[in-house]
Every structure is written in C-alpha cells, then in structure tokens.
Amino acid sequence: MDTLTVDLAERSYPIHIGRGLLKEPGHFEALLKGRRAVIVTNETVAPLYLDTLKQTLAAVHDGPVEALILPDGEQYKNVDTLNRIYTFLLERRLDRSAMLIALGGGVIGDITGFAAATYLRGVDFIQVPTTLLSQVDSSVGGKTGVNHALGKNMIGAFHQPRLVVIDTDTLNTLPDRELSAGLAEVIKYGLIDDADFFVWLEEHLPRLLAREPEALAWAIHRSCADKARVVAQDERESGRRALLNLGHTFGHAIENGMGYGQWLHGEAVGAGMIMAAHLSRQMHWIDDDDLNRTTHLIQAARLPVAPPTGLSAERFKQIMAGDKKVLQGQLRLVLLQGIGTSVVTADFDPGALDNTLNALTR
Ligand code: NAD
Ligand code: MG
C-alpha cells in the first residue's frame, strides 16, 4: 500500500492506494469510532463490492453499517436523487457526527459528497472510488455536486473528503471503455505539467491496458499526486486549477453537441486534448513531434482522436461560447506550450481556432 496526502491545512487528508484495500479495516477505524456511517452506492457496484465493504467496516464500527443503493447513471445525478439521500438520513435520524461513504464511480462520489456538504450544514465523508476516472480525478479535490436540466454540475459545493481509499482490484470488473475513459484524465496530467509521467505513459501504456496491478497503482499514484499538488495551490479554482480542464472545453462541446451519454466524458476529453494540441500547434507553441506524440498516446489508450462526424465547426463555436470558462465574453482555453507545459489563455488567434475546427471536424 502507498499513501499520499492532499495538503490543505486543517482540511488535509490521506489517499491510500493498493490492492485489496476494501478488505482492510485499519484505514477506516479512526474515522468511524463512535459514529454512525452510511454507505451510498449504486445498483451496479453494490453486487460487486458492497458486502465486502460492509464486512470490513463492521470490524471497526459498532452497530450495523447501513447502505443506500441508488440507480446507476449520470441521469440520476440530480436533486431528486439527492433528496432520496437526505430522506434516508433524516428517517434514520443521523446527526452531525454521521459519516457518509461513497462507494462507486464519479457519479456516486459527486452526489454523496454534495449530500455530505449540505446535510445538517455539513457532515464528513469518505471516498471509495471504483472507476479509474474517479480514482485519478473526481475523488480528489473536493468538487461535489449534481446536474441541473440546464447544465452539468451546475449545483454544487467544495467539500473535501476526510479520506480516499483506492482499491485497485476494483478495476478488474470495469468495462474496457470505462478504463480508457479514465486513461484520458491520466494522460491529461502528463500533458499539463508532468513531462516525465508522459514519457512513462508512452512506455507503459500497454501494461495499463492489460490492467497490471503495479502499473495501475503507479499511474493512479502519480495522477493523484499531480492533481493534489494543483488543488493544494488553488483549492477553489481562481487560477492554476483551471489547467485541469485541458481538452475539456472542446470535450464538453462534443458531449453537449452529441447529447450527453453518447460519448463517455473521457472519450470526449481524449478528442478534446487533440483539438487543444492541434490549436497549440497552429499557434506555433508546440512542434509536430509534440502533436504526434500526444495523438499517438491518446490513440494507444483506445480513445477517439477526432470529434464525431456531424458536429460542425459552427456548432462547436456556438456551444463553446456558453462554456463556464468564458469570462466577460472571452473564451479561455487550456493550451500547450510543450509536453508537460500548459497555460490557460484567451490570447490565441481566432483564425487559428477556425483552422483547427475546420481541419478536425467532419
Ligand atoms: P460513473 O460513476 O457513471 O461510473 C461509470 C460506470 O461504471 C457506471 O455504470 C458505474 O456503475 C460503473 N462502475 C463503477 N465502478 C465499477 C466497477 N468497479 N466495476 C464495474 N463497473 C463499475 O462514471 P465515472 O466516469 O466514474 O465518473 C463520471 C462522473 O464524475 C461525472 O458525473 C463527472 O461529472 C464526475 N466528475 C467529477 C469530478 C470532480 O472533481 N468532482 C471530476 C471528474 C468527473
Ligand atoms: Mg474530466
């Protein structure tokens, strides 16, 4: 097992990474002593891992550990489902000492975290992420929330977990497509500010696709360390944290333009990072070699390297104009200045953006 710390003064917390951690009560013990805990999970994850986690927690917890099993899907990450969590907690009279435990992917982590941020004005929670994407991204950093009919993740709060427990064995049951989607965010960390990690990924990606435990544990460690460093510098995204959105403005346009649920988020981010790299090349900020290496690695992760057919350059621009990162009417993008060097900038040539969109859309 391997442990990292997210360094946020009194809100600091450990991330434990290793095989079989769902079966180890030790990490949970101190946080569960003398308080009631509720596991929140979904219908897909519950049959796989809920009994194991319940048994583990029973060893360090007085009384039964209760669980709420939600339906599976991004479409349930909304205020109606959130209200089901509140009702479950209120009916059982959980007080401010309650501990919520999110067992599942990013959807479960985000909604459980937001329930914890708001139930009785805030209770503690633990993240037990079970998808690669949630292990390297959503479980770390304290962004929690739900979707609104008018936009994704529009209702939320910053609320850091007290602990993150990553059992890499849970990835054995993850569908291939979800594994690749998580790899998009892993590659993102290399591109943003970790050139050495990018080189490591170029060499070791096949081991990740083959789900070799040591390789996965290392990639998760490095990704969490990279994210934790950025979050420690800028917890509430007033600056540097925006770099974590590399590929995401283009990616959101793909998700939105296709209708959410057609492409996985990580797939859209994969194509989006190539679009960002292409634009960076147009600006002469990176060279052909950087662009080719980026494209190869994303392709090797079995991710799409171009946006879907039918989404026009015009439509892209229209959707991107409504992006959260538009400040005072100016579109800001995360662009590359090399592999492992990125900037958030509004200072790109609109003609270059047109070239990229015209070159890559079909
Ligand atoms: P997800 O939670 O929908 O999980 C993907 C699928 O895998 C689901 O069907 C899930 O039930 C299933 N699953 C989970 N663990 C499994 C396992 N071990 N074996 C088999 N199947 C398993 O999707 P995700 O990609 O984990 O997360 C996406 C969500 O995360 C989005 O809602 C996104 O907005 C959010 N997100 C949040 C942050 C943040 O900082 N808070 C960052 C990135 C993404
Ligand atoms: Mg993302």
TrEMBL record:
First-listed, main subcellular location of the protein, grouped into a coarse class: cytoplasm
Record's catalysed reaction(s): 7-phospho-2-dehydro-3-deoxy-D-arabino-heptonate = 3-dehydroquinate + phosphate
Pathway: Metabolic intermediate biosynthesis; chorismate biosynthesis; chorismate from D-erythrose 4-phosphate and phosphoenolpyruvate: step 2/7
Residues that, per the record, bind NAD(+): 72-77, 106-110, 130-131, 143, 152, 170-173
MF annotations from Gene Ontology: 3-dehydroquinate synthase activity; metal ion binding; nucleotide binding
Cofactor note: Binds 1 divalent metal cation per subunit. Can use either Co(2+) or Zn(2+).
KW Translocase (keyword) present: no
Binding site for Zn(2+): E185, H248, H265
Domain 3-dehydroquinate synthase N-terminal: 68-180
Cofactor(s) required, per the database record: NAD(+); Co(2+); Zn(2+)
One of the protein's GO biological processes: amino acid biosynthetic process
Highest rank taxon of the organism: Bacteria
3-dehydroquinate synthase C-terminal domain: residues covered: 182-326
InterPro entries tied to this protein: Dehydroquinate_synthase, DHQ_synth_AroB, DHQ_synth_fam, DHQS/DOIS_N, DHQS_C
Key words, A-Z: Amino-acid biosynthesis, Aromatic amino acid biosynthesis, Cobalt, Cytoplasm, Lyase, Metal-binding, NAD, Nucleotide-binding, Zinc
Top EC class for this record: lyase
Location in the cell: Cytoplasm
CDD domains referenced in this protein's UniProt entry, alphabetically: DHQS
GO cellular component: cytoplasm
Family matches, as PANTHER family: 3-DEHYDROQUINATE SYNTHASE, 3-DEHYDROQUINATE SYNTHASE, CHLOROPLASTIC
Family matches, as HAMAP family: DHQ_synthase
NCBIfam families registered for this protein in UniProt: aroB
Function: Catalyzes the conversion of 3-deoxy-D-arabino-heptulosonate 7-phosphate (DAHP) to dehydroquinate (DHQ).
The family this protein is said to belong to: Belongs to the sugar phosphate cyclases superfamily. Dehydroquinate synthase family.
Record protein name field: 3-dehydroquinate synthase
Source species: Ectothiorhodospira haloalkaliphila
Annotated gene: aroB
